Amino acid sequence: MRNMNNSLRPVGIVGAGKYVPERILTNQDLEKMVDTSDEWIVSRTGIKERHIAAPEEATSDLAYHAAVQALEAAGMSGSDLDLIIVATVTPDMFFPSTACLLQDRLGAKKAAAFDLSAACSGFVYGLATAVNFLQTGMYNNALVIGADCLSRITDYSDRNTCVLFGDGAGAVVLGEVPEGRGFQAFDLGAEGAGGAHLYLEGGGSRVPASLESIEAKKHAIFMNGREVFKFAVRVMGSATERVLEKAGAAKGDVDLFIPHQANIRIIHSAMERLELPPEKVVVNVDKYANTSAASVPLALIEALEEGRIHEGDTILMVGFGGGLTWGASVLKW
Ligand code: ACO
Fold first, then answer.
1. Which of 64, 222, 297, 302 has its CA 20 to 30 A from that of 89?
2. Which of 30, 226, 267 to mutate to test the pocket of ligand 1 (most atoms within 8 A of CB)?
3. If 0-12 CB within 10 Å is exposed, 13-18 middle and 19+ buried, where does residue 140 land?
4. Does 51 participate in catalysis according to the annotation?
5. b/e string for 311-328 if b means 16 or more Cβ within 10 A?
């Protein structure tokens, strides 16, 4: 909805919540499962442990707990919601969407609901989508969730991938904020040509589930780590520079940088390029590993809980992942 100055309605975060499953899988536990070591995992990735969903927990359960917290923080209930977007690559099932399962559980009777698939960039893609609905006035509020249960699609006999992933969910409620605050710019993108570096082949319409597909381990993540690493370093630099420019901001204006938590070495390379000191960067990859769509919101919400975010701060978020995709955003808190 345009205001009197004919600019778009300012939209920001009015409530946030997170959830990680109780069970912790440490590097020492993984040493007993595959040929790896705590030293290798910490030095190559920065990961020390990750949270793994209980057998009876699925993505919508993680998302639900995060959503309840976010709604409470916003002083709202499910019935107030206009829109629910769940970014995930591990939905409970193909359909109904995880967003529809949540809509029912939250009693969000008037909300439109859909899932969004952009892997680890999903949360930022989801924010951009919801912000557009809100800025134009089509909806007044939205619940955007990044939630994934990567443990369900991880082959725990493949040391190349099983040390890297964890489960979790982060949720935000978006709504109108004072003029000058809220989301300033987005930079979303994709390089479909790199899709073959990171994928899950089985269970879709190309390779439906069969005994053969299970035996060939086609229901687990395949990743060419080196190629994804190179892509990540490249786009973390280019996307952050572009989104800052779109927002009319400079590197020096960034108060807090919230990168996708996949690998500490990728985060360090982005910090160098953006010339950011450690106190301006959120890192929790050591505790949660790569939680895919949940990674950026988990880091954002943890920073909030730790009192690291203040009114008027300029926050730079960036995600990258399967697709290949990236998404960056500048947010004035
Ligand atoms: N323990 C011990 N050794 C290992 C392990 C392990 N867990 N995993 C791999 N190795 C070995 C490899 O076999 C290889 O051995 P070789 O040289 O004898 O073949 C050696 O370690 C080095 O392998 P590299 O691939 O060169 O290791 P690298 O330093 O690149 O680190 C890693 C690998 C951590 C996967 C890194 O490439 C990376 O982080 N890539 C990016 C992943 C990512 O960010 N994904 C995000 C998207 S995920 C999503 O969207 C769901």
1. 302
2. 226
3. middle
4. no
5. eebbbbbbbbbbbbbbbb
Q: How far is CA 73 from CA 78, 135, 146, 282, 333, in A?
A: 12, 22, 17, 21, 15
Q: Which two tokens stand for residue 184?
A: 């300033």
**Mean pLDDT score of the chain, rounded to an integer?**
96
162 is catalytic: no
CB contact burial 44-56 (16+ within 10 A = b; e otherwise): bbbbbbbbbbeee
Instruction: For the domain covering 183-332, report its CATH number.
Output: 3.40.47.10
Mutate to test the pocket of ligand 1, among 26, 40, 44, 292 (most ligand atoms within 8 A of CB): 44
How many angstroms does the Cα of residue 24 sit away from the middle of ligand 1? 21
- What does DSSP say about strands 256-259 and 314-321: parallel, antiparallel, or unpaired? parallel
For 80-97, the pLDDT digits (tens) are 999 999 999 999 999 999
* Of 120, 141, 149, 162, catalytic: 120
Question: Domain map of the chain by residue range?
Answer: 11-180, 183-332
CA distances, 125 to each of 26, 152, 188, 254, 293 (Å): 31, 23, 7, 21, 10
Q: How far apart are CA 33 and CA 13, in angstroms?
A: 41
Top-confidence residue, 8 or 112: 112
pLDDT computed for residue 8 by the predictor: 85
Predicted pLDDT at 2? 52
Give the per-residue SS3 of 246-292: HCCCCHHHCCEEEECCCCHHHHHHHHHHHCCCHHHECCCHHHHCECH
The yes-or-no answer to whether 11-180 and 183-332 have a common fold is: yes
